[in-house]
Amino acid sequence: MHVYRIALLTVVAALFTACGVSLKPEELYGKWKYVKVEKLNTNPPELLPDYELSSQSPYIEFSKDSNLKIVWGGDILSSGTFRIDGNKIMFKEDLPGGKTREFPFLVSSLEGRNIVFETTTQGGSRVTAIKE
Q1: How confident is the model at residue 45 (pLDDT cuts 50, 70, 90)?
Q2: Which of 5, 40, 77, 113 has its CA 20 to 30 A from that of 96?
Q3: How far, CA to CA in Å, does 41 sit from each of 20, 50, 88?
Q4: pLDDT digits 0-9 by tens, 50-83
Q5: How many CB atoms are located within 10 Å of the residue 60 CB?
Q6: CA-to-CA distance for 97 and 53, rounded, in angstroms?
Q7: Alpha carbon 100 to its chain's center
Q8: What is the CATH number of the domain that holds 14?
């Protein structure tokens, strides 16, 4: 039960933190290189080692035609489409067999070429990225 409380508090805190951010699709267009990844299902959050980020070169890319792809280690890890809903990037992920699922990336900060967003799915993570 304690783990669920921590997860719920993390989500609530993320929602309150992100309330001031209002996104526009044109602010996202382009390639965003991950510079920090935190696993949120640990207390305190666990940082992905710099050497792994360096060797895997992960990034997320948003296109003007509302396509989104996440690349890790040179391979497309996930792809689909996106739409903006206030402070959320709603990602409609393409799955095998023609299926899809939609979930949010909560954006807590978008300042110039820097963005911080997180997932609230099980095993969630917080990503800090810089626009290339």
Answers
A1: confident
A2: 40
A3: 25, 19, 20
A4: 999 999 999 999 999 999 999 999 999 999 999 9
A5: 25
A6: 31
A7: 17
A8: 2.40.128.20
